[in-house]
Amino acid sequence: xxxxxxxxxxxxxxxxxxxxxxxxxxxxxxxxxxxxxxxxxxxxxxxxxxxxxxxxxxxxxxxxxxxxxxxxxxxxxxxxxxxxxxxxxxxxxxxxxxxxxxxxxxxxxxxxxxxxxxxxxxxxxxxxxxxxxxxxxxxxxxxxxxxxxxxxxxxxxxxxxxxxxxxxxxxxxxxxxxxxxxxxxxxxxxxxxxxxxxxxxxxxxxxxxxxxxxxxxxxxxxxxxxxxxxxxxxxxxxxxxxxxxxxxxxxxxxxxxxxxxxxxxxxxxxxxxxxx
Length: 276
Prior knowledge:
Blueprint: E1 2-3, E2 13-14, E3 18-20, H1 32-35, E4 48-50, E5 66-70, E6 73-77, H2 85-96, E7 103-106, H3 112-122, E8 130-134, H4 143-156, E9 161-165, H5 172-181, E10 186-189, E11 193-198, E12 204-210, H6 215-226, E13 233-236, H7 242-250, E14 255-258, H8 260-264, H9 268-275
Parallel strand pairs: 3-4, 3-14, 4-7, 7-8, 8-9, 9-10, 10-13, 13-14
Antiparallel strand pairs: 1-2, 5-6, 6-12, 11-12
């Protein structure tokens, strides 16, 4: 077993180093039967699943969520579209509680107080094994802004806290130090990078780029953060194969997150875990 939160009283133990990154499997219940997420023993190859980013209240994205295929990966937009935390607590968490697969809820909110309120509502909820705080979607690219958000969430819950770092941060090492100092149990990096892609009709769409194009940058940043990190690191960004996953682990990551790989192939987790 691998403990992603060794300094947390709850711990976050995973049986496989391969993790489904935020949004790649939605809330899991949609594909649970197909992937055997509730099976014993698990057949998905996954050690944990992070949900799509969820807000305190339901949010309908305008325009609706969209994925645009590019020559080097996927650009996604409308990430904020979600049913709200009540749906997570009442509809999804009871299902997760029957799984052996740990589920981490990714949170977003309009400021520190809303994030803290959402995190507090997940404390003690059966089926929720941790929370993730993605900094990029909150525009928290500096140690000061990130520190405020992490501190607010940390005060609101004892649950293991994963903080996802943005690759476009001006100083990712300073950012990593700050979020650990304010209570992060685990670091994850990198999130998708801001980009623009052309739709088939020629119009342009702004969103977040994930996939092979960001893999070399992600690997370099993971190696830099792991060289001085005092907490476990989840390396992610363009991982598509067992070789890519091994490179992340060689760079110092404790576990590896899959995003676009799962969107392209639901069984990527089993394939990559089996190749390690």
